[in-house]
TrEMBL record:
This is ATP synthase gamma chain. GO terms for molecular function: ATP binding; proton-transporting ATP synthase activity, rotational mechanism. PANTHER family: ATP SYNTHASE GAMMA CHAIN (PTHR11693), ATP SYNTHASE SUBUNIT GAMMA, MITOCHONDRIAL (PTHR11693:SF22). The lineage of its organism: Bacteria, Candidatus Kueneniibacteriota. GO terms for biological process: proton motive force-driven plasma membrane ATP synthesis. SUPFAM superfamilies: ATP synthase (F1-ATPase), gamma subunit.
Length: 304
């Protein structure tokens, strides 16, 4: 009986130590989440409105003005997969990796299935190659919280150059959209060629941006100076960079929110386990004391 109580005490001590670690990780993730969310929200309105303008430009100008507008037969697809560097964030990485794989699987199902290359951002994005045996064209590092657009320049430059050189006929972003600290949604978004349909998934944020800035689709007119070709040549690559940057910011905010929630759940589970173990320990002690009393009583009765 004494050995059983010692084992329970050892487990209680171990779980308490683990709960302290998960609580510390929860607090750290909460700080990083607030930083990432604040930074993401600062640029979200601009990024969404910029994308609406780009889509509108694609509809109102001819595809001949810029190669980024030109749709062509899809023979090879580039998927930019944004994940985290570390785990312990619930199903965050598994969901976006699985979504990217399902998108690729959908492409393979056709009669003329295009080849698919993955551009990986974040160490956990490697799961697409390890688990699903997909080809990675390039891997890029990312900080825990992306703060400057310059940090994604190597990725965006490679994507734009590869598309302009006809190495790929379509480029899509696979990232996690931040909805709230409790909800994040994996998303696949076509980046190139620039689509001519407005992004319905912008939801309330996109609607609020349009209403706040008074932008009405039927009232837009564009005057290009010096010419449409020159204006698009300068602006389209920068706006594409903005979309990649915003996707990374959304993913950062989603990652730290998911990790904070996962660590919070782990801490609560540890406390529940400690309560159960404490109850088991007290019951074991009580059983031991009862047994000792019974033995003493039995011995006394035998001696009398």
């Amino acid at each position: 009986m004494a050995q059983a109580t010692r084992e329970i005490k050892r487990r209680i001590k171990s779980v308490k130590s683990t709960s302290k670690i998960t609580k510390a990780m929860e607090l750290i993730s909460a700080v990083k989440m607030r930083k990432a969310v604040d930074h993401m929200l600062l640029s979200r309105g601009y990024a969404h409105l910029a994308w609406q303008i780009v889509v509108d430009l694609a509809k109102r100008t001819g595809q001949t003005y810029h190669k980024l507008l030109q749709a062509r037969e899809v023979k090879k697809v580039a998927v930019v997969l944004v994940a985290s560097n570390r785990g312990l964030c619930g199903s965050f990485n598994a969901q976006i990796v699985a979504s990217a794989y399902q998108y690729a699987l959908g492409l393979f199902s056709g009669d003329k299935a295009p080849a698919v290359d993955f551009f990986l951002l974040g160490k956990k994005a490697r799961d697409i190659t390890l688990k699903y045996k997909q080809l990675a064209a390039a891997e890029f590092t990312k900080p825990d919280v992306t703060l400057r657009v310059e940090e994604i320049f190597p990725l965006s430059e490679m994507i734009l150059t590869s598309y302009l050189e006809d190495k790929y006929d379509r480029v899509v972003l696979a990232y996690t959209d931040y909805i709230s600290s409790l909800k994040q949604i994996p998303r696949i978004k076509q980046l190139l060629p620039i689509p001519q349909e407005e992004d319905a998934l912008l939801g309330d944020v996109g609607e609020l941006t349009r209403n706040t800035l008074g932008v009405k689709a039927d009232l837009r007119e564009y005057l290009f100076e010096p010419s449409p070709a020159e204006v698009l040549q300068k602006t389209l690559p920068r706006l594409i960079e903005t979309q990649i940057y915003q996707a990374v910011l959304e993913s950062d905010a989603s990652e730290h929110s998911a990790r904070m929630l996962a660590m919070k759940n782990a801490t609560e589970a540890a406390h529940d386990l400690i309560d159960d173990l404490t109850l088991a320990y007290n019951q074991a002690r009580q059983a031991g004391i009862t047994q000792e009393i019974a033995e003493i009583s039995g011995t006394k009765a035998a001696m009398s």
